[in-house]
Amino acid sequence: MSRRAVVIGAGLAGMLAAAVLSTAGVDEVIVLDRDELPEGPEHRRGLPQGRHAHLLMAGGLAAMEELVPGVDLRERLLAAGAHEVSLSSGLLARTPEGWLRRWRREGPVMLTCSRALLDWTVRDAVREHCPVEVRRAVAVGLTGSAGRVRGVRVAAADGETELDADFVVDASGRGTRVVTWLDGLGLSGVREYTVDSGLVNATRVYRVPQGAERFPLTLVQPDPYVSRPGRSAMILPIEGDRWMVSCGGTRGGEPPTDPEGFLRYTLELPDPIVGRLVSGAEPLTDVHLSRSTSNVRRYLEKSARWPDGFVVLGDALATFNPVYGQGMSVAAFGARVLGRELDRAGSLGAPGLARRVLRGAARSVDAAWSMAVGQDVLYPGVRGGRPGLADRVVTAYSRRMTKAATGSYAAASAIWDVTSMRTPPTRMLHPAAILAALAGPALPRLTEPPLTAGERKVLRGLDRTAV
């Protein structure tokens, strides 16, 4: 008997899930998406954060390459203009505890490019190497019962049609209606938790100035410890010889959309380096704004009952404040759980398979959720959460570790390993990391960005604020 799987959503989570299913012996894999998908790296409506900065961490990239057989995604992205950035030497980062040093040692890397390029590269690779069909359609519900999902209800010009399936994956993102769909099957009481710092993202793209092609990724992080709105800015090198400049501000500190206000915002940060650099760069776009930034956790894995044949992955399971750069990697980890559980079960129809996948994907979510929410609850005006005793203990230790990292390679490497999502946050509790945190920075605090002589020359040449 032939087997059909339906995936709702053609974003990263959906296409990675489709790749897993197609290589697990499923006869037919259909991906549904409400958007008309572009034929190249172009923005689409279904990605509300698509115009803003995204970082693909080493752990997430490794998971993606494991899921799409026969494809070197790293090489594809680099060939298309993505940049590989070393966390140890290729990053200028001002933390709330001061500037991180740049070390002449190898460290984990991340890839930077537009979200449109990343999505298109993954989607193109999956369609090229996996027998997957992508259809433009709007899923409006599930068919089946509380015991087993049997397919998807799809909107049609004359009402609704039913698309039968042996297995359904909801990867429809932040806008998922999974709780309503479960209610329709008689499964209610799903617990949802939202923590909203009110973050607003504002992004403008610039042409990379001549001579600045190798300037490091530059980041001024928000400070959640001063009882003021968090404000940040980043210069991200992306394909096409462009800089993507993204500003973020929590409730009460939102960045403006007018060009003059946007520049002024960057210059008024604790260090004005981002504004100084872009003041001499040519803008290529207007300022784009987005407010879809809250952390939302759906505790589906804790439901008393769960139907066979139905899994929820990616942002449909949990969404994170995008400033922490975790969502894409977590989506890949969830799809990897799907692949491993399918290998163990040997069949789409195995009883309990869907629940095991859901619980495994939820474990992938937990660490990212704790990191994002643990910081967001500290900002004034946050809605949905307050820091508890555990949050305060973790915060105190994280601050100490970050302060140590401004002058300690051991502390910095622990942070890089966790940030790159190569290791879980427990890496911070290894004896060497604890000793580094207790010892503090071995080198004095930097009073200005750790630039090379050539980079200082580039900065002076671009800075129009000093004129």
Structural description of this entry:
It is a single chain. The chain is of the alpha+beta class and 467 residues long. The chain has 2 domains: 4-54 and 114-193 and 293-364, FAD/NAD(P)-binding domain (3-Layer(bba) Sandwich); 85-107 and 200-290 and 388-467. The chain has helices at 12-22, 58-67, 73-79, 115-129, 178-184, 259-267, 273-278, 327-345, 353-376, 389-405, 409-419, 431-439, 453-462, and strands at 4-8, 28-33, 55-57, 83-86, 91-95, 98-99, 109-112, 132-136, 139-144, 149-156, 159-164, 167-170, 192-195, 200-207, 217-220, 231-238, 242-249, 282-283, 288-290, 295-298, 310-312, 318-319. The strands form 5 sheets. Strands 5, 6, 14, 15, 16, 17, 18 and 19 form an 8-stranded mixed sheet that branches. Strand 10 and strand 11 (159-164) form a beta hairpin. Residues 1-24 form the signal peptide.
CATH homologous superfamily assignment of the largest domain: FAD/NAD(P)-binding domain
Count up the domains: 2
What value does the average pLDDT take?
A: 93
Strand content: 15-25%
- Uncertain stretches: none
Q: What's the CATH class label of the largest domain?
A: Alpha Beta
What is the distance, rounded to the nearest whole angstrom, between the alpha carbons of the first and last residues?
Answer: 74 Å
CATH architecture of the largest domain: 3-Layer(bba) Sandwich
User: The CATH topology of the largest domain, please?
Assistant: FAD/NAD(P)-binding domain
What is the number of helical segments per DSSP (H or I, 4+ residues)?
13
The Cα radius of gyration reads: 22 Å
Largest sheet entry = 8 strands, mixed
Structural class: alpha+beta
Helix-residue proportion: 25-40%
